Amino acid sequence: MGTSLRAAALLAVVVLSVLVSLLVTSVRQLGTRESPSASAAPGGVEEEEEALRRALIRQLHQRRKEMTPLLSPADPNPDAALGLWDEVPIGPRDQMGCDSLVDMRAAEVLGSGYTKLVVRANLARGQAPVALKLVNEQGIDMSKCVEDFKDPGGCRELVSYKLRREMILLDRLRHPNVIELKGHCAGVQGGGGGVERGRVAVILEQGAPLQMIQLLQSPWEDRFRVCLDLVRLLHFLSRSPLGSVGLLDFQPRQFVTVAGRLKLTDLDDASSEEAACRADADCTLRFPRRNFSLACSARGACEGLNEKRNIYNAYRFFFTYLLPHQAPPGLTHLVDHIMNTTGELKADINQTLEAFEHILLLYKSGLHLDNLPPSIIRDYTAVRGMGTSGNVEYRCWPSYSQQGCVLSVHSAREAAHICNSHPQCGSFALTAQRTWTGRLLAHFRSGFDRLVPDGTAEVYVKKARAPEAPPP
Ligand SMILES: Nc1ncnc2c1ncn2[C@@H]1O[C@H](COP(=O)(O)OP(=O)(O)OP(=O)(O)O)[C@@H](O)[C@H]1O
Ligand SMILES: *[C@@H]1O[C@H](CO)[C@@H](O)[C@H](O)[C@H]1NC(C)=O
Ligand SMILES: *[C@@H]1O[C@H](CO)[C@@H](O)[C@H](O)[C@H]1NC(C)=O
Ligand SMILES: *[C@@H]1O[C@H](CO)[C@@H](O)[C@H](O)[C@H]1NC(C)=O
């Protein structure tokens, strides 16, 4: 208990220091604070405050009720579970609590949104840093609520329900492409009321925000990985323990990467219910550039709506930007097929996942390169166990290295084909380095001074060509 309280105090300090730094950086937030009662007429103040208080309590009840379907039927007392953070029934796995935050050092803001603020926390030595999700005191959700209800403590509690809901979803929807929930710490034991209400942190594995601009400039292999991970996630969500889950707010900023793997981190807008309907017309999926109509089922639900919305959002926010551009020539017809079936909602998530896994298989095995003539490698002299020094580099795009031309290849044969297509290329080296699919990294160069022993490398030098016949 003693250490929990210390951690709780620490948490409050972290929240404060992060807020101070946020205040300094976010100029637009300055000066927006008003004193709540300044303009109210003296006679009506108490009545008005009472009405606001009741409205806020109604909202709190509403939020609690919305969470009931997410709790598993096995929970002994779902009602109590909704009351206090400490009783939120999360899985039996090793859970981190306030105790693990006791030796927390140096927090840094990782990201923020309408609702939440995410900071990095370094824990005791030897432990990987974690991400803490907190209520964003400067966020739109808090500002709007305080404007409406003039009660920061009550508002923090109201907003913290989104965090609580997200935590339950993260626990129920554990998957390699969902950020790992490590635990939580509620700042005040017993939720004693007053301004400390809702001061809580959800402890997550730390990722890096998805940088779309950076991703657009990366090799196709990395962009394909993001799309494949997304499809694996959507396949899981379509048949999750909570039923078919739809992501209502589907944007790249809801995702992070952990060691190159895409993970969903923002789940507060996930819905596990299909929309209710009376007629087919109620089941129209509307997007800015496309509408789709679905059937209303006999039990009065738009069956399959969540899955379809997810697929189309994946198409419009991810595939269109990441997938077609620079796809390997042997795979473009398969990529085009995916673009068409997802953009037209002609394939379900099973078929879409199958199409992606098929591409991965071909790409890994090099089967898509079947039409490269084997003789192409005869243009090169191979030197095994050697690397090069005094290299003359040239740049290509999109390269794994800023300084030179480094591309992934399936084999020396594919590398030879690439070298032949670059006018500057005089040699290439294969190293032991591999990409996430297991392909080799090949270093293409104009030339080099000499060969040096290197047990892990192979150098291929272009043979001198016979002089070309002069033009007639
Ligand atoms: N585990 C994490 N590791 C690193 N960064 C993270 C992590 N989780 C979230 N972030 C970053 O913090 C940002 C805000 O988190 P989140 O999306 O959950 O908040 P939000 O208030 O719901 O945002 P929005 O207004 O976009 O819905 C994210 O966009 C992401 O960049
Ligand atoms: C989608 O439907 C809405 C409402 O019925 C309509 O106003 C809009 O023009 C449609 N959009 C497209 C792209 O068809
Ligand atoms: C899918 O293919 C059809 C037929 O070629 C074409 O008319 C349609 O525009 C394509 N749709 C998308 C989303 O690419
Ligand atoms: C999709 O695949 C799952 C198994 O992964 C299977 O249970 C389900 O029936 C399939 N759905 C359709 C529509 O084929």
From TrEMBL:
One of its GO terms (cellular component) is extracellular region. GO terms for biological process: skeletal system development. It comes from the Eukaryota. GO terms for molecular function: non-membrane spanning protein tyrosine kinase activity. Coiled coil: none annotated. Gene3D superfamilies: Transferase(Phosphotransferase) domain 1. This is Protein kinase domain containing, cytoplasmic. It comes from Kryptolebias marmoratus (Mangrove killifish).
